[in-house]
Amino acid sequence: MSPARNDKPLTLALSKGRIFDETLPLLAAAGVQVAEDPSASRKLILPTSDPGLQIIIVRATDVPTYVQYGAADFGIAGKDVLDEHVAANPDGIYQPIDLNIARCRLAVAVRKGFDYQSAVQQGSRLRVATKYVQATREHFAAKGVHIDVIKLYGSMELAPLVGLADAIVDLVSTGNTLKANNLEAVEDIAPISSRLIVNQASLKTRSARLQPLIDAFARASAAKA
């Protein structure tokens, strides 16, 4: 972990999409406005109305890495991403707040008509496509089911349709994408929301600047709970 220099702006790591959109009200509650919309800009570093705070736009799966190694002082990432990151880096980052945003669930889904209950009898074997390898292994190990994990990064719903996998483990919000592809969620693994994460060195060396923002996020997220 590399502590950030105190004369530089605080850096908040965010990903585009739902997490970014649902973070804006939290920033507003802290008196901060973002100067540009990342969906309409190619910029990866966005200024804010606070000259002491800038935002960097990174892939969702990279947010914990930027925070852990001090390229960002803090960030916001889904519990799904954090669980996978922490499995490989158990002491890397501090997670002070569940922000109660970008809520969904991690679930098992299969083709409609697939007899999932019979397929997960103890001692059986399944092929499961997912990018959430750690959570998937733990879930099926607890059921006594052997699995072959096929790691994919996108178009997860295609895997059961073309015979690549028997099931998928993925995030589910409305379930509309599953329905559109003739799939159905058959088992929930965990509720998912996004968390505030903080670089441990920054928390020590820049606490006077970080803590007011952390406190404002905590108040705003508590109001959403």
UniProtKB/TrEMBL annotation:
<dbReference type="Pfam" id="PF01634">
    <property type="entry name" value="HisG"/>
</dbReference>
<keyword id="KW-0368">Histidine biosynthesis</keyword>
<dbReference type="GO" id="GO:0000105">
    <property type="term" value="P:L-histidine biosynthetic process"/>
</dbReference>
<dbReference type="InterPro" id="IPR024893">
    <property type="entry name" value="ATP_PRibTrfase_HisG_short"/>
</dbReference>
<keyword id="KW-0028">Amino-acid biosynthesis</keyword>
<feature type="domain" description="ATP phosphoribosyltransferase catalytic">
    <location>
        <begin position="59"/>
        <end position="217"/>
    </location>
</feature>
<dbReference type="GO" id="GO:0005737">
    <property type="term" value="C:cytoplasm"/>
</dbReference>
<comment type="similarity">
    <text>Belongs to the ATP phosphoribosyltransferase family. Short subfamily.</text>
</comment>
<keyword id="KW-0067">ATP-binding</keyword>
<keyword id="KW-0547">Nucleotide-binding</keyword>
<comment type="subunit">
    <text>Heteromultimer composed of HisG and HisZ subunits.</text>
</comment>
<comment type="pathway">
    <text>Amino-acid biosynthesis; L-histidine biosynthesis; L-histidine from 5-phospho-alpha-D-ribose 1-diphosphate: step 1/9.</text>
</comment>
<dbReference type="GO" id="GO:0005524">
    <property type="term" value="F:ATP binding"/>
</dbReference>
<protein>
    <recommendedName>
        <fullName>ATP phosphoribosyltransferase</fullName>
        <ecNumber>2.4.2.17</ecNumber>
    </recommendedName>
</protein>
<keyword id="KW-0328">Glycosyltransferase</keyword>
<keyword id="KW-0963">Cytoplasm</keyword>
<comment type="function">
    <text>Catalyzes the condensation of ATP and 5-phosphoribose 1-diphosphate to form N'-(5'-phosphoribosyl)-ATP (PR-ATP). Has a crucial role in the pathway because the rate of histidine biosynthesis seems to be controlled primarily by regulation of HisG enzymatic activity.</text>
</comment>
<dbReference type="InterPro" id="IPR018198">
    <property type="entry name" value="ATP_PRibTrfase_CS"/>
</dbReference>
<dbReference type="InterPro" id="IPR013820">
    <property type="entry name" value="ATP_PRibTrfase_cat"/>
</dbReference>
<keyword id="KW-0808">Transferase</keyword>
<dbReference type="InterPro" id="IPR001348">
    <property type="entry name" value="ATP_PRibTrfase_HisG"/>
</dbReference>
<dbReference type="GO" id="GO:0003879">
    <property type="term" value="F:ATP phosphoribosyltransferase activity"/>
</dbReference>
